[in-house]
Amino acid sequence: MDGSSFPESERRVKSGPHVEKKLNAAFVRKAGPGRHADGGGLYLKVDPSGARRWILRTVVRGRRRDFGLGSANLVSLAEAREKAFELRRIARSGGNPKVRTREDEGKATTFEELARQVHERKFKDNANNGKHIAQWLRTLETYAFPTLGNLAVSEIHQDDIETVLDPIWTSKPETARRVLQRISAVFDFACGRGYRATGNPASGMLGSMRPQRQKPEHFAALDYHDLPDLMEKLNGSNVVGALALRFTILTALRSGSVRFAEWEHFDDTLTEWTIPGSLMKSGEEFVVPITTHARDILMVVREHRTKSSPLVFPSPSNPRKAISENTMRKLLQSHVQGVTVHGMRAAFRTWAREDAMAPDDVAEMVLAHAIGSKTVQAYNRAKLVHERRKLLEKWGMWVMGEAYKYNDLADLDREAGRRAIKMYADE
């Protein structure tokens, strides 16, 4: 990196001569956030998180450059001064200190420091799926950092990683695989930067670990026959959590899309909802037909809308923020223990197949699932809005316990099907 990477506030250094060897070991351990000069272009950089590292600023072939000399947890003040002196000597002789630092930096960078760098770079411009972004680092903090965190990235071997994975490999198989995947991503980055000469120690480990026999757990779903009773209980409350949960069930969408829905995403008549790609798992815009019962909920919510928030279901404590992801889950489990909000989508899919006998492509499109191969998706421009509206209207009748309406509509569908079969047979 070069000098322009420092914020302006950090590039301002007090005028006057730079006294050599201004720092001491005690100060290095306790220094607060900021950039602290030792002299001769050597600085201790302390992040707000408390992470501290050495940086040398010097001139290389007429241009000012900054070179990382490693973590202050691994490189002592004396070692940092020695490295700085050597790199300044290389620069003065016309050489390139970067060649030397790439060889040494892996020995002076801890796994935790590099993992946090990878996490920041990986998700820097990605505001979607904040839960996944947080979990990416949290799994490493929980399982990997206690063992690997303070080790230099150049000195970690496969047996070190096995020490991390072995206790959870069969007891938490999905978590263990994710931890391995994220550890591997950190070492891919280390190898790309030249911090390791022996390659990625996590490569090939998935095939060499013992079998994981535990089947993956699925989201707990409520039997669709029990949904009318649940909705009857929820209808007795107009708190934002209950309204959001009812709307989520009626639209069969993921809770994240509902939690962050804004009024500007709906048309004026509240009959169509255009969800921006940033709120969809697929990353693509999705149009949702709003049915009778879902619209009724929006009408109730709109009566209590506040100008301070663009959100349809804002947090009661802070209208500028969406309701917590736990709000609907806790409310649902207060009525039916062990069931998840995501499981409502599974209930819809089972109902669509077993009771409504809906075409698979229509049911899958309601759930915003990709249909067919990528080639098929590229040529399938049909959004099936009319078909989805019809299916969701029937779903609304079912979950709201309107059996008389639902059965009449189902009879009409069956009669239309019989007529179509007879016409085909007569041709």
From TrEMBL:
- Tyr recombinase domain location is 217-392
| Keyword hit for DNA-binding | yes
* Keywords assigned: DNA integration, DNA recombination, DNA-binding
Domain of life here?
A: Bacteria
A Pfam family of the record is: Arm-DNA-bind_3
Give every Core-binding (CB) domain span: 109-191
Q: Where is this region: Disordered?
A: 1-20
Quote one Gene Ontology molecular function term.
Answer: DNA binding
For this entry, list what GO says about its biological process.
Answer: DNA integration; DNA recombination
Where does this protein have compositionally biased stretches of type Basic and acidic residues? 8-20
Q: Which family is it part of?
A: Belongs to the 'phage' integrase family.
Q: This chain belongs to which protein, by name?
A: Integrase
Species of origin reads: Roseivivax isoporae LMG 25204
